[in-house]
Structures are given as C-alpha cells and as structure tokens.
UniProtKB/TrEMBL annotation:
<keyword id="KW-0812">Transmembrane</keyword>
<protein>
    <recommendedName>
        <fullName>Galactosylgalactosylxylosylprotein 3-beta-glucuronosyltransferase</fullName>
        <ecNumber>2.4.1.135</ecNumber>
    </recommendedName>
</protein>
<feature type="binding site">
    <location>
        <begin position="10"/>
        <end position="12"/>
    </location>
    <ligand>
        <name>UDP-alpha-D-glucuronate</name>
    </ligand>
</feature>
<feature type="binding site">
    <location>
        <position position="83"/>
    </location>
    <ligand>
        <name>UDP-alpha-D-glucuronate</name>
    </ligand>
</feature>
<feature type="active site" description="Proton donor/acceptor">
    <location>
        <position position="195"/>
    </location>
</feature>
<comment type="similarity">
    <text>Belongs to the glycosyltransferase 43 family.</text>
</comment>
<keyword id="KW-0464">Manganese</keyword>
<keyword id="KW-0472">Membrane</keyword>
<feature type="site" description="Interaction with galactose moiety of substrate glycoprotein">
    <location>
        <position position="139"/>
    </location>
</feature>
<dbReference type="GO" id="GO:0005975">
    <property type="term" value="P:carbohydrate metabolic process"/>
</dbReference>
<dbReference type="GO" id="GO:0046872">
    <property type="term" value="F:metal ion binding"/>
</dbReference>
<feature type="binding site">
    <location>
        <position position="41"/>
    </location>
    <ligand>
        <name>UDP-alpha-D-glucuronate</name>
    </ligand>
</feature>
<feature type="binding site">
    <location>
        <position position="78"/>
    </location>
    <ligand>
        <name>UDP-alpha-D-glucuronate</name>
    </ligand>
</feature>
<keyword id="KW-0735">Signal-anchor</keyword>
<keyword id="KW-0325">Glycoprotein</keyword>
<dbReference type="GO" id="GO:0000139">
    <property type="term" value="C:Golgi membrane"/>
</dbReference>
<keyword id="KW-0808">Transferase</keyword>
Length: 245
C-alpha cells in the first residue's frame, strides 16, 4: 500500500477563498492515497468550505481552529493555530501502524502533481526547492557533490535561519510526527522562522532527504494572490445588496 499523504491546509474567509480552495482541491484530486486536512481559521465550520469539501472526491478531515485575537494583527505568524490543530488530530487519530507523510500546503501556493510523488516515501524529513520566495526566483538546498546530502542553502533572506526553507519545501514522515510528539508551531517566532522552529524539533540537517532530482527541479511555488478590487461590490453592500457567491 502507498503511504498516505496527509496534506495540511489552513484557510480563512476572504473574497478569493473559494477560488483558492477550488484550485488546490483539483490539484489534490490527481494524487492517489491523499488525505486532506483542512483547518478553518473560524469559530465554526463554514458552509463554503463544508460544501466545497463534500463536492471533491477526496478523503478529507474538516477542522476548525481560530487564531486568538491577540495574534490576528499584522506581523503575527499565520497558520500556527491551524497547523497545530492538524498535528494534534494526527497524534490522536493515527498510530505507528499507519504509513504516511505530512505536508503543509497553504491554500494560495501553486503545486505540481509531481511534488507529491517526491515526498511520498519520506523516511524522516525530505526537502526540495521552492520557487518565488525569500526574494529569489528559487530558494533551495545546496547539496554536497560528493555525499549528495544537504550541505547548506542558497537563501538570501535571513540565511542565518537554522533551516532557511519555506513551509512548502519539506515533508515529514508520519512516524516522525508521532515520535516527536511535542513538536508544534509557535507564536514566539515570526513568519519565516516557523519552518526552522518545527524542523529543529524534528530532525537535523544531516538527516535531510533531498528530493526533486537532487534539488534541481522546482515543483512548488510560493505564489500569493492579489486581493481583488471590489469597490463596486462594496457600494452595493452599502445599499444592502449582497452578491450570492
Ligand atoms: N491563514 C489563516 N488565517 C489568517 C491568515 C492566513 O488561516 O488569518 C492561512 C492561509 O489561508 C494560508 C496560510 O495560513 O493557508 C498561510 O497564510 P498566507 O498564505 O497568507 O501566508 P504567506 O503567503 O504570507 O506565507
Ligand atoms: Mn501564502
């Protein structure tokens, strides 16, 4: 049996949410043995996400975890509450008999179906390049030409990070998530340091498994969606007219 890919996606309500989740869900529908864990940043499950999930043919788990109000301000790390809720769910519901890999897939990135093939047989933690992040076209591990292991990174933004790598650039075996049962994301480190924070609890640099043709292929991009201009919509709303979407 193929190991299951537990794909963890935090999401929150905004005008582009349905478009983002439609795009991501239809990518995920191409992947076999995948379990989508969607965590809404909301006090209760919303019909939008509920209906969208029900219309996919995916195995999924729908959770809620609202970001505390004091961490909702600009500059706070995003997705902490939601990813931690998914980690708690995995530790509560899965055992060492379940074979799988855990991937943090934000709702706005762009994913090649190939990246899922690369991560599936991760033993501990696997890594690969991520496009359009850290002020670069690609942020990627640099491999030692002799050993083929990760020697360092090409990161330009805060290269002093212990693991200067984006959330989309690594996957963790389910067994490692279960073994290191106290590893969580934290509000005490800012955006860009979350990856280092969780990876330091789970692995060391010399254990990393380079994927995507020795980290030469870009199979995922840290794209960000522009907020649409809705000035006309807002005028209608002021007159009590609300578009049914
Ligand atoms: N997110 C969330 N609540 C928020 C902001 C973001 O749940 O208040 C989710 C978002 O949907 C995404 C992830 O957290 O899946 C990372 O957020 P974002 O893509 O905005 O971060 P960035 O692109 O800046 O890394
Ligand atoms: Mn994003």
């Amino acid at each position: 049996d193929l190991p299951v890919i537990y794909t963890i996606t935090p999401t929150y309500a905004r005008p582009v949410q349905k478009a983002e989740l439609t795009r991501l869900s239809q990518t995920l529908m191409h992947i076999s043995n995948l379990h989508w864990i969607v965590i809404e940043d909301s006090p209760k499950p919303t019909p939008l996400v509920e209906n969208l999930l029900a219309r996919t043919n995916l195995n999924y788990t729908h959770l809620i975890a609202q970001t505390p109000s004091n961490y909702r301000r600009k500059g706070s790390p995003r997705g902490v509450e939601q990813r931690n809720a998914a980690l708690r769910w995995l530790r509560k519901n899965k055992t060492m008999n379940d074979k799988g890999v855990v991937y943090f897939a934000d709702d706005d990135n762009s994913y090649s179906v190939q990246v899922f093939d690369e991560m599936r047989f991760t033993k501990e933690v696997s890594v690969w390049p991520v496009g359009l992040v850290g002020g670069l076209m690609v942020e990627k591990p640099i491999l030692d030409p002799i050993t083929g292991k990760v020697a360092g990174w090409n990161a330009a933004w805060r290269p002093d990070r212990p693991f200067p790598i984006d959330m989309a650039g690594f996957a963790i075996s389910l067994s490692q998530i279960l073994k290191k049962s106290t590893a969580y994301f934290s509000y005490t480190c800012y955006g860009g340091w979350q990856e280092s924070h969780i990876l330091q609890q789970l692995t060391t640099k010399d254990h990393l498994e380079p994927k995507a043709d020795n980290c030469t292929q870009i199979l995922v991009w840290h794209t960000r969606t522009e907020a649409p201009k809705l000035s006309e919509e807002n005028k209608l709303a002021a007159r009590g007219i609300h578009s049914n979407v």
